[in-house]
Amino acid sequence: MQKLNGAQILSECLLREGVDTIFGMPGGAVIPLYNVLHDYPFKHVLCRHEQGASHMADGYARATGKVGVCIGTSGPGATNMVTGIATAMMDSVPMVVITGQVPTYMIGKDAFQETDTTGITMPITKHNYLVMDVKDVARVVREAFHIARTGRPGPVLIDIPKDVTTNVTDFEYPEKLSLPGFKPNTKGHINPIRRAAKLLDDARRPLIMAGHGIILSEAYDELRQFAEKTQVPVISTLLGISGFPETHPLYYGWPGMHGMYYCNMAISHCDTILAVGMRMDDRVTGRLNAFAPHAQIIHVDIDPAELGKNVPTAVKIVGDAKQVLKLLTEEVQENPAGEGNRLAEWWQTLNQWRIEHPSLALPDKPEKMSSPWILRQMYHVTEGNAVLVTDVGQAQMWAAQHYFFARPNTHITSGGLGPMGYALPAAIGVQYGRPGEQVWCITGDGGFQMTLEELAVVREENLPIKIAIFNNNYLGMVRQWQQLFFNERYMAVKMWNPDYVKLGEAYGIPTVRASTLEEVVPALEWAHKQEGPAMLEFVVDPFENVFPMVPPGASLQETIESVQEVAPQLAKVAAAAGGSSGGV
Amino acid sequence: MKHTLVALVENQPGVLQRVANLFSRRGFNIDSLTVGTTDTDKISRMTIVVDGANTQVEQVIKQLYKLIDVLRISDVTNDRTVDRDLALIKVQATNSTSRAEIVQLADIFRGKIVDVAADSLVVEVTGDEEKISSLLHMLRPFGIKEMVRTGVVSMTRGAGLAARLGEERLEAAG
To answer: Which residue among A181, A303, A309 sits closest to B68, beta carbon to beta carbon?
Structure first.
């Protein structure tokens, strides 16, 4: 039998799991691991900050459906990755995070760069391991990958002390897994599926809410077939965008805090919801006790804990979106499109809402530059074929609203944790996962400055990422809240910015600034044609607001569409809630 | 309402921390949590008493199931169970009258005197929570100097849970 050290065993196991790309940064406790990486065919991408490595692995995983892998050293290496791990946990992204640890005999002695990594990451990982014996390395890596990608995906962390990576043992790859406490049910029981089909057959105003689960289980065809057989309108959650073609006639937008007005009305008036692979997040539901007041909810999720967690459900189906939708499509009655469509009346109402409150309407020839219009032009210039990786805040919302995603899994964003600085490192991971595609990083000046050190990776690896910075010299979303809900008392939101053209130059990344309406399309076309990386800075109006908006604590029915509506609507919300508006 | 949950978990380092962590992370209140070994050294058994509405407790159970080390959880609240709590109570006893009365009380509650000192006695008593509370109530006038309770452990009567737990036990035992 082969004698190998812990680092070699780890690498052998990574190979067997099909790992080709690793994002990371070396440091004291992982030097022996990096020492053996020499001998393995992995592409190692050197981040400039471990948070970057964790978001890169996340982006890679979201883009490919494979498990993303990142490595950091003990102590600060591990703590720097906490944001990326929590991001992956909230959004169900399969990742294996490898952290170095001080040698086993120094654990607990407050050694240099020692931190209780498994303790810190326990609530933000699906599972984690501290490997104290080299004999356990192979089993742990095998289990970690299985847990990360099976059932509801998520991050698994392996903390590996330095001496465990250098100790030697017989290497035997464990073919069999023994995880008696981990058996996710994917198929879905037929009884609740039949009850769901009956509800949907009888529904007069049904709605499908399609979440991230569609993308994670690649249930694109199953969702389309179900919708086409039943003619039920499809709305997606923020993370569900690009799970169903936005150009499809049955697509009806996405709801929630900055979702389409008509979409929020559809939820508020529908009689049946088929929610698939989504978790009824507060950004989607608005005030819970007023969410879908007339609807019976059928909830499909692979994680039983999501069913009934936030909203009461009529039918709970535990299972994988792909498998359940397939069975459900077999069980439901066919409803023809056009003549004889029994949902014709519902569609008439839906179309009327969309005409009266278009939400996404933009002038073809506006008088001045606006962020939504820039994103719409980006859609035209890229012919809707780009993969957009968006940051957090106003630009994220505008991108989700005004770019139309027709191809599967082309909208990548952090929905749950919402870490500013996500987009650039995630876009790097996405580009590695989908090398042939044009990846755009959409960010604001605030978010970009949190992780812009990763520009060095873009340059070093000559990644053809197109970076679009929406620079309004403000933390825009917070400014918007201060304007609308805090009497325009602006505090700590205006920010100085570097000269991004010079910054691009310093990093060797061609950069163009667009400050006027006329400069927008040429700038986009220029970036679109660049073979290597390119950066655009759009100098935009600092006082743009994202609308529609559901004020914090309000219900979806109380969606507002302009600044003028804010004050009267807030008064109504506060009166209904007995004085305090609440919500976050 | 109080619910008693019985959990079988893999005997791994950190499993108690995972369970305790989950309760605080999700905002659930633990009344008591006991953990101990079972007949298989790979499996530990927890009895968790949690206060909350039915829907909340259902959520607790589902979240606990997501822990990889948790093999099986049962809400035994509505099952016929044997519940036992053990208490050690150090009672002030400065004269022979009070000493005699304390011994008598311990006797009635089928407790035992396990330590005698010049000015105190230690009473050991087992039973359900109610029984121990009643004894405490009776001993309080003498002056309680120290007290410790183990928290409740619970087991269903008859075949009930044992049958449900069988499969996981065998598998974890490998």
So the answer is: A181
Q: Which fold has domain B2-79+157-173?
A: Alpha-Beta Plaits (3.30.70)
> What is the Cα–Cα distance from A524 to A533, expressed in whole angstroms?
13
Q: Are A364 and A376 in contact (CB under 8 A)?
A: no
Which residue in B9, B17, B63 is closest to A122 by CB distance? B17
Distance CA A286, CA A290 (A): 8
Four-way CATH pick for B82-149: 3.40.50.2300, 3.40.50.300, 3.15.10.40, 3.30.70.1150: 3.30.70.1150
What b/e readout covers B18-45, taking b as 16+ CB neighbours within 10 angstroms? bbeebbeeeebebebbbbeeeeeeebbb
Residue type, A127: H
Do residues B21 and B67 touch, judged by C-beta distance below 8 A?
A: no
- Residues with Cβ within 8 Å of A93's Cβ and at least 6 positions away in sequence, in order, are A58, A61, A62, A68, A87, A153, A154, A155
How many helices and strands, by DSSP H and E, does chain B display?
A: 5, 9
C-alpha distance across the termini of chain A, in Å = 58
Residues A528 and A462: beta-carbon distance below 8 Å:
no
Nearest to residue B74, comparing CAs of B99, B93, B52, B48?
B48
C-alpha Rg value of chain B to the nearest Å: 19
Q: What is the pLDDT of residue A571?
A: 82
- Interface contact flag, B171 A180, Cβ < 8 Å: yes
A9-55 confidence digits (pLDDT tens) = 999 999 999 999 999 999 999 999 999 999 999 999 999 999 999 99
Measured between CA atoms, the residue of chain A closest to residue B56 is: A309
Pairing mode of beta strands A127-130, A155-161:
parallel
Our CA dihedral for A425, A428, A432, A438, rounded to 10 degrees, sits at 140
> Exposed (0-12), middle (13-18) or buried (19+): which is A198, by Cβ within 10 Å?
middle
Residue B7's closest chain A neighbor by CA? A181
pLDDT at position B27: 86
Among residues A543, A389, A388, which one has the least CA distance to residue A480? A543
Q: Quickly tell me which residue has 């780009």 as its tokens.
A: A386
Sequence-ordered strand ranges (E) for A228-383:
234-236, 272-276, 296-301, 315-318
Tell me, what's the ipTM?
0.90
For the entire predicted model, the pTM comes to 0.95
